Input
Amino acid sequence: MRADLLIVLASSMLVLIGCATDRPMVRMDKGVTLSGYRGFEVELTKNGTGKPLPEMILEKISKRLRLKLAEKGLTVHEQKGDETGVVVLKSTLISYDLINPGEYAVIPGFKDECIVQTELIDKTTNQVLGEFVARGTIGPGGGLAGVATALVSDLETRMIDRRRDSATGREKMMSWTARWFFFLLQITRGIMLVYTVLVLSGCTLSVTNMLPEVNKKQLASTHETLRVGQVREGNVKTDIMHRSLAPSGTITPGVFEDTLYQALERSGIFARVVRSGEADLHLDAELVSQEMSTGYPMTATLFVRYRLTDTHSGQTRWEKSVVSIGQSPASEGFRDRQKLANERAVQENLKQLLIALSSVVATTKGQ
Output
């Protein structure tokens, strides 16, 4: 009983101080399984925020990942080893919002926010197996630990086939105390669902507002033509309820495809952009996942996977995942904040796409 009560209290404190972290957004390549791998190697986290950050923040993310992997009984290898069957974790801190008035989340009641993108790479073949994107709040006690916990817990689940026999002996029935806590959690999620529906009613995204503002003179161009494929959709959820939102609260494939097409057409990168028919290149886009933080500011996180294919050779010319965020402060009103956050997330995602495609075009012309 005592141990169960401690578990419930600890979980409650995590929720109350904001260190609880959402399940990560995940993209795994088709047919990929981690059950055959024997361990992990963690590289030093890179700073992808576009602003200077103390080295200790980046070191802390990598350190937490190694610690959580070890706590789960997963093997952690040193870098530059020659082991086989190893997955390398390459993480990038793509967003860090310093909200805490103290230095890096030390004052109770305030939480900095971060988003970490992690690639899973086969050390032997250098093949990218998949990607994880996790959002966390950094408060007293270390929200970065929450980010690491979310990533490692999902990794452990994906390796469960290899560890099932050893794990069976550790499985225990959840006590009534823990069940009561999770029952209360479900009630809270229901209340948040009602809140979300009220907020989202009447929120229609505007394609015009989502078009990125990019200086065309700074973009490279090519004589090649481009066909935009039908946008596919992955998982959609919020960071509070872990369940799907209504279409009115999400970026739908149709709206994203319209915006993508118009952004590419306006950019001038390609000689012609079409949605059907013959073209030199074909662009695929998948809305891997979307998340919405209904706090202050309201934050939308968009995870899109792009692939550019040469239609003549059938070879992939370029492939990349782009993660972007859009925010709307409380001052922008109760009903419009999620709409504005979503629009800004799309705008930033497409801006990164255009810059990347311009670089691809410039590199190809130089060959």
Summary: The two ends are 69 Å apart (CA to CA). The chain has two domains: 6-168, 193-365. Helices lie at 2-17, 55-71, 143-158, 160-168, 176-200, 207-210, 253-267, 337-365.
